[in-house]
Specification:
The chain is mainly α and 70 residues long. It is built from two helices and no strands.
Amino acid sequence: MSSTGSHAGRPKSWVAVAIIFAGFTIGGFALTQGPNWIMFGAGAAITVLGGIIALAVDIMTDVIVDDPQH
């Protein structure tokens, strides 16, 4: 059984995911520090920026669905 599809993604898509992850990490850390709402806002803004970048690089076209197995 060989797979013809790829679920790895393109490098620019992984950059967008890394930016989103960094935003969530910053926001989560900010919530544990008081909460620090300014830092949380910065994390949220970074997450939104990553989402915009993800849409710009058309991240949703990275996954190629395999043919159904019978």
